[in-house]
């Protein structure tokens, strides 16, 4: 009766275990519960990105960086919308971007376009309903940008802040992805509908 919506029976496991309203308000006990419950999700997402790069031993430190991001005054958790994605999906994207940032900092002379695709890939947490994108058509970073812009409905500036990159990087990557989609669909209305998100 007094349970929060996030703990309703039909909610995903992590949402059932965490009271989002109390968590967002800064309740310490709820934060401790959140750390215990979400830790494995965050660690697993980080490890998937670091292990192929030979940096598995650094996964624990990067996972702690994710929690540090969540604790900041402008903490991204405050903007989490359960109507857009599950909490596990949200945390997986956040942890993935933190791992990518970590790998980029370790190799500051390597442009993002030279980072191997397997280190940038992000698993599709939810089916894409608007456009069926064939496997291999887009690069991993292009898929990540489209995931943030369309599946998560982020603005360019928001996605740039989320990933810690310049907005122009988001626009450039998005533009290259759209060129590939246009070439593949050859004028299909589905690709045109996607373009309106950033070009309109």
**Percent of residues in beta strands:** under 5%
Span between termini: 45 Å
Main sheet summary: none
Please identify which CATH superfamily of the largest domain we are dealing with. RNA polymerase sigma factor, region 2, helix turn helix motif
Identify the CATH architecture of the largest domain: Orthogonal Bundle
Q: What Rg do the Cα atoms give?
A: 18 Å
| Strand/helix succession | HHHHHHHHHH
CATH third-level topology of the largest domain:
Rna Polymerase Sigma Factor, Chain: A
What oligomeric assembly is this protein in? Answer: single chain
Record field, number of beta strands: 0
Q: Tally the helices: what do you get?
A: 10
Assign the structural class, choosing from mainly alpha, mainly beta, alpha/beta, alpha+beta, or little secondary structure.
Answer: mainly alpha
Structural domain count: 2
Question: In the CATH hierarchy, what is the class of the largest domain?
Answer: Mainly Alpha
3D architecture notes:
This protein is an all-alpha fold and 200 residues long. It has 2 domains: 1-119, Rna Polymerase Sigma Factor, Chain: A; 127-200, Arc Repressor Mutant, subunit A, CATH 1.10.10. It has helices at residues 13-17, 20-24, 28-50, 59-71, 87-106, 117-120, 140-151, 156-163, 167-185, 189-199. The protein is globular and about 50 Å long. It starts with 12 loop residues before the first helix and ends with a helix. Mean pLDDT is 73; it is low at 1-9, 121-130 and 187-200.
């Amino acid at each position: 009766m007094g349970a929060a919506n996030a703990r309703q029976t039909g909610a995903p496991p992590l949402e059932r275990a965490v009271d989002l309203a109390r968590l967002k308000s800064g309740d310490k006990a709820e934060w401790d519960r959140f750390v215990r419950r979400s830790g494995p999700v965050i660690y697993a997402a980080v490890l998937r990105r670091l292990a192929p790069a030979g940096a598995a031993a650094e996964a624990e430190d990067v996972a702690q960086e994710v929690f540090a991001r969540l604790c900041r005054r402008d903490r991204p958790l405050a903007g989490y919308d359960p109507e857009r994605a599950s909490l596990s999906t949200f945390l997986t994207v956040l942890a993935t971007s933190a791992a990518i940032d970590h790998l980029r900092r370790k190799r500051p002379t390597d442009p993002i376009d030279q980072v191997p695709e397997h280190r940038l890939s992000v698993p599709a947490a939810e089916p894409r309903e608007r456009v069926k994108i064939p496997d291999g058509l887009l690069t991993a970073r292009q898929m990540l940008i489209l995931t943030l812009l369309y599946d998560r409905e982020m603005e360019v500036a928001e996605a740039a802040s989320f990933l810690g990159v310049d907005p122009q990087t988001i626009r450039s990557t998005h533009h290259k992805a759209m060129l590939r989609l246009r070439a593949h669909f050859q004028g299909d209305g589905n690709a045109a509908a996607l373009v309106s998100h950033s070009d309109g």
